[in-house]
Amino acid sequence: MSRKLLEVENLQAFYDLSHVLQGVSISVMEGTVLSVLGRNGAGKTTLLNSIMAVLKKREGRILYAGKEIQSLPAYKIASLGIAYVPETRGIFPSLTVKENLEIAARKSVGTTNRETWNLDRVYQLFPQLKDRAQNGGAQLSGGEQQMLSIARALMTNPDLLILDEPTEGLAPRIVQEIESFLTELKKEGLTMLLVEQNLSFATSLADQIAVLGKGQIKWVGSPQQFMKEMEIQHTWLGV
Amino acid sequence: MKKMYFLLMVALSSLFLLTPIHAAEPVKVGMILPYSGVYAGLGKEITRAFELGLEVFGDEVNGRKIVLVQEDTEGKPNSGLSKTKKLIFSDKVDVLVGPVSSGVLAAMRDTVHNSKTPFVIANAGHDGISGAKCSPWIVRTSFSNRQVVRPMGKWMYDNGYRKVYLMAPDYAAGHQMMDHFKAGFKEAGGTIIGEEYPPLQGTKDFGPYLAKVKEAKPDALFVFFAGGPAIQFVKSFGAFGLGNTIPLAGAGWLTSPLYIKAQGEGANNIIGSANYIPSIDNAANKAYQDAFKAKHKREGSEFAVQGYDSARVIVEALKAVNGDTSDKKAFMDAIRAVTFDGPRGKMRFDSKNGNIIQNIYVYKNSKTNGVIAPSVFDVIKDVQDPSDSCTM
Amino acid sequence: MLKAEVLRKSYGSLLVANDVSLQLEKGERRAVIGPNGAGKTTFFNLLTGEIKADSGRVIIDGMDVSGQSSDARARAGLGRSFQKNNLFTDLSVIDNLSTASAVAARLGKVFWKPFSAFREIREDAENLAEMVNLTEVLDTPVRNLSYGHQRQLEVGLALATKPKVLMLDEPTSGMSPEETKVMLDLIISLPQSLTILIIEHDMDVVFGVTEKITVLDYGSVLIEGSVEEVRNSQVVRKRYLGDAKA
Amino acid sequence: MYSDPTFLVIQTLNGLQLAMLLFLLSVGLSVVFGLMNIVNLAHGTLYMFGAYFGIWVYNLTESFWAALALAPLGVMLLGMFFYEILIKKLRNAPPLQQVLVTFGLIFVGLDAVRMSWGNLATSIPKPEIFSGSVLIFGEIYPSYRLFIIGLGILVMLVLYFCLERTRVGSIIRAGVDDREMVSCLGINVDLAFFGVFCIGCYLAGLSGVVAGAVFPVEPGMDMSVLILTLIVVVVGGLGSLKGAVVGSLMIGLAETYGQVFIPEYASVTIYALMAIILLKRPGGLFPARAVQ
Amino acid sequence: MKKLFTLDRFVALFLIALSLLLSESVEYYGQELIAEITILAIFAMSLDLLVGYAGLVSLGHAAFLGIGSYATGILTVQYGWEMFPTMLISIALAGLVSALVGIFVVRLEGIFFIMITLAVSQMFHAYFLKNREFGGDDGMPGIQRLDLEAFGLTVFDPADFAKFTLIVAVLVYIGLDLLMSSPFGRYLIGIHQNENRMRSLGVPVEQYKLAIFIIAGMVAGLSGSLQAQHTGFVSPDAMFWTVSGVVLIMVIAGGTGSLVGAVVGAVIVRLLSHQISSLTEHWMLFMGLFFIAIVLFASDGIYGTFAKYCRRSRWWKSAGNSSD
User: Fold this and answer.
1) What is the pLDDT of residues D152-200, one digit of tens each?
2) Do D183 and A99 lie within an 8 Å CB cutoff?
3) Max Cα distance, chain C (Å)
4) How many domains does chain A have?
């Protein structure tokens, strides 16, 4: 029934001459959430940038819904139904909140019959954004920026949502809010690939955990198993 | 990469190729003119007419063929000088013809003078060359700036213009033109009520200047513009409606036949002084215009006639010395002695300074059959360059 | 040795440094930690003068450098490494280091004597290379260097000017555990008299280098104290360690 | 006489018409330069081709409007051609190489024009309805100049509308902020920027035709406007519509007022103005991206 | 330890030897051309100091050449000075003016530096164009040459004048080469490579940029003085921005940052345009294609690419020059 929506096979990635990813393989099942954990510098962001072709110097295979995408440019990858919420949030400061959302609006390309995301629905989910609709992207607080970034990703009606440390630098109250949004989305059956440092956040949302260290996948398993693996936690996450 | 090295060697060894061939049979005429840059059109025009002149007056004297060596001054003094040296010392030309711009002429002058190379100036109007900077090796078939405009000052006063506004580009020739017009005009009793000198390069708009002229309400506006700026100026003058209120007068080049079509209605009714206009009525001019039209399908301009006459001067001088240019002094004397009735009427060189003595034509543009063209309004005969600062 | 007094900086309505103060004694080692976007690097840049503070003072070794440019502050004794490698990429390791050594020796006004004639500069640079474990790649151009080596060189350049205060901005970021270990040893081995201020995410490195930590959050100091104090602080656990159950 | 209000109005109109011509020319260069990081010194060449294509079309059709409609399209095609064969390859080349290549293009373009249309200066006749004059406070003023001002304002408004009110405009603004993020939203941002490049070429051609009825059309006309355009671009700041508008207004008016009030220094007014502005604001007045 | 004979110096030596040889063997015009190109090469080297070593792309460098020329012309023709002190004063004056300009402009970057230098030079150009005392746009003729009888050179003999300019060029090259090999030069290389890093190491970057701006201005002034002596006149055209533009093109075409590259660029571009313009009036077309070809096929410039190839090639390495 469930299939592999995203598959990464033996991915190698480079920044200049440094070999950041050294053969990473992961897969995300449709309708599930995969959390990739790892320390700073483990290569988490590089992994996501490689998938999205933001980083072009890479080797290996990346498949989306069974189709090879590693040689496609970023915009084509995104238009297959992948949405990216980067660590930097990528809000466009010269655009208003509304424009930030509208620019991304696109019909779903997937086969699932989820309810379509549009401006109204996004505003329902994030009422703060509606209040701030005419504000410039630069005038938002960190939490609002994060919400806008997620909301904007939703406007593309994705089948796969990729999030890079969505809780980073946010106050606990906001982290909780975001957690509840994402849980909501998960219930709707949206597939997610989540990169996190925040263990509690990651484990509560994920169906599966992968631990990235030294540019390689060190451990894969369920959240329940992960909580027991103190050794893994210590060695690769420094907790 | 071997290619690159090869290229370097070729470039360097091409220095060797500059070794000149010894002056053999043909008479070499060095055409030192702009073939690129702003004045490229004039350089070509003079060259074409010079070639036409050789066809008409003969390109062979006593078995010696006359050949042209063209070098591009780019209208820049430095390039002009460098090319002049090439023509004199490398090509060993017998005579130089050119240049268009006074700046290049000023740069060339000492080299020509010191190397004792016969030099026929075919356009540049730099006053100094027939003044303090004159040389026994230089004659001018074209004009000196003051020669063209000074008589016009008197003429305009005599014809009822008392208060005149002046405008010319802000460079030496522009100021020379205006200064001499002013001298002639004031001598006659007129008053200058305003002067404007827009920058030579990049005057993007004459509107501001024209508005000032309009405010001053002169009897006439006297200007000197040539080439592209002349088109722009005349069009703006018309567009601002000054044509109906203020008479426009200028030194001849203002409505040159090369540009008059592009100037449109604005060119109508302009008066000017020139050393040549195409409609001068004499046999030599008719022959010249017929020949030029047959070859180039349009009227020959005042620039062309200077090239044409320069060719005639050289051919006749060569005939006088039987094609022998080995005695440069004798050849130069022969050049200076040439006199003929040409398209511009009777012409001869001023023994004092080598400048041409010629008629200055006062013309007026008018529209006949939908075509605007100048016609002769008045003739000021045998005008000399009035300078006496030349001591040869 | 280094004193920052109520440094404040804002971009429009965005306050990136909210009255940050800090005092380091000679030989003291201090880590600045905090979540991404907490304003750590901004704080560094305010100290070094790369960003001009709206208000507040910076004092280096008793000298008020508040209004001064970054190069003047460097001459006053601040040496820094950057979070993102900031090297002379077309030059070799030795040329990188010797350039920095020449700056330290204030040779810039010497224009009559070949640079290669300054043996002592070369020796300085070689010593530095040894200090930061780059001896075996001395003649390699920086752009052909491994990332870890580049990070080491980054620290080497900061050390070359013989600073009074060494400021390290995430010296181990992006490094493998082995490389991190090398870097940690390197930092530990630095002379005890050197005052060090370090931004670091890797807690092992932080705990390895220093006893005292300043936690920044939202551009202001959340808490300042010993490793133990910070470790046990509920505020910090909540904010920074993400309330992890560990 | 300089205090006469009518005189001032007339001179301000003169300044405005120059400003609008400069605006048409510089907005494209500013965008290409500021947003695509292409140092296109051959922008003036496109302007020159606009004028010559205009003359070509005019000679065939006897219609100014046909020239105005077709010539800019021709220039756009020319620009696209050079983009495809040359500029694209150099998108990420060091600026000095771009300088050399576009300088090469200037040389090639200049001789291409000379070979095709000769060396002599010429001009495009004004359209019939704008060939006359109108009365402004009792002063005769050329109506074509008002046409230029109107066209400039129209283009300004259209560009403003497209940039601020359409999705493509949002994409371009967003692309300036964060190009990669736009791609990650599934939008082909390179295509959008290529469109911007084409519009820049189109406007350069348009200004060539429009200017060809006022200024002489001659080989070398490219170089004189190139400098003026670059001045507008750096004064306004790279890559922003606002910068291009403000820059061209400042330079256009400064040039005109300079000629009127300080004719002695007319040739240096704008250079001096630029120098002062750059010393105060080293990145120009309204750059699209903050200068690092 | 650096090699004494780097590739740059080797090629420089080769060029000088070739020119000296040629100055004896070619005829009058060739000698004139050698002098002309040598002066141009000095000017190109001075611009390379800015472009290739300090990363300051100037489009107004001709202003300093012009100031050197005008100072030489004004002092000798109008004030009757001796040529030797005039040359020194010309150089000093060019340095002084570049100091005054440099104080304001060196903190600008990229296109903004380009445009402000252009603006400054256009203002100088406008001044000399207008100033009728110094000849306006016709310029000032009648400039003599430095008397070198004492060294057995007759400067009116073009071969001797060519030799004189070559000797000056050699001295300039040696001087600048030494300067660039000195710690000062190393600072500049560091600034060009990574300005921010130099700043954080404690280098007052602007002061060094100003210093090199002044030195480049002085060398340009020297070349201007030589040019005035060679051509015998000076006109405002010498400081028009296109002159700066053409020399900038020469420096880029030759390859920046090696001094020799600038020289090679000046020699090749000048010779090519000279030769082609004698053959066809459409020489600009060929030069344009040549420039485009350089970028496409020799992106480091003619000499830069040549040097890169040489350094990789076996014979150069086998000659024991593995790292220079």
Assistant:
1) 999 999 999 998 889 999 999 898 888 889 999 999 988 998 999 999 9
2) no
3) 65
4) 1
At the topology level, CATH places domain E7-318 in: ABC transporter involved in vitamin B12 uptake, BtuC (1.10.3470)
Is the Cβ–Cβ distance between A94 and D182 less than 8 Å? no
Q: Chain C closest CA to E323's CA: distance in Å?
A: 9
Among D residues 134-173, those touching chain A with beta carbons less than 8 Å apart? 167, 170-171, 173
Split at pLDDT 50, 70, 90, the class of C245 is very low
Burial of D27 (0-12, 13-18, 19+ CB in 10 A): buried
| Angle E140-E141-E146 from CA coordinates, rounded to 5° | 110
- Residue closest to D119 by CA, chosen among B38, E285, B304, B41: B41
Query: C175, C206 in Cβ contact below 8 A?
Result: no
Between B110 and C217, name the one with better pLDDT. Answer: B110
In a domain, D258, yes or no: no
- Note whether C74 contacts E199, CB cutoff 8 Å: yes
Q: Do chains C and B touch (3 or more CB pairs under 8 A)?
A: no
Q: Is E255 helix (H, G, I), strand (E, B) or coil?
A: coil
| E-chain residues near D264 (CB < 8 A) | 130
Could you tell me if the ipTM is greater than 0.90? no
Total residues belonging to chain E: 324
B1 closest CB neighbour out of E237, E268, E306: E306
DSSP lists the bridge partners of residue C57 as: C5
Q: Confirm if B275 and B363 have CB atoms less than 8 A apart.
A: no
Please, what is the average pLDDT of chain B?
A: 89
**Which sequence spans correspond to the domains of chain B?**
27-143+281-349, 146-274+360-383
Q: What is the pLDDT of residues E178-235, one digit of tens each?
A: 999 999 999 999 999 999 999 999 999 999 999 999 999 999 999 999 999 999 999 9
> Which CATH code is given to the segment(s) B27-143+281-349?
3.40.50.2300
DSSP-assigned letters across all residues of B337-390: H-EEEETTEEEEE-TTTSBEEEEEEEEEEEEETTEEEEEEEEEEEEEPP-----
Closest to E289 measured CA to CA, from B90, B73, D128, D109: D109
| Distance, C-alpha B214 to centroid of its chain | 31
Host domain of residue A44: 4-237
**SS3 assignment for B141-156:** CCCCHHHHHHHHHHHH
d(CA E250, CA E263): 8
Burial class (CB in 10 A: 0-12, 13-18, 19+), C80: buried
Domain count, chain D: 1
Residue D86 in any domain: the answer is: yes
Q: What are the pLDDT digits (tens) for B246-301?
A: 999 999 899 998 999 889 888 999 999 999 999 999 999 999 999 999 999 999 99
Give the CA count within 13 Å in the CB-facing half-sphere of B2. 0
| A112-124 per-position pLDDT tens digit | 667 888 899 999 9
**Is the CB of D290 inside 8 Å of chain E's CB atoms?**
no
Domain B146-274+360-383 annotated CATH 3.40.50.2300 = yes
Task: Name the residue range of residue D94's domain.
Answer: 5-220
pTM of the model: 0.89
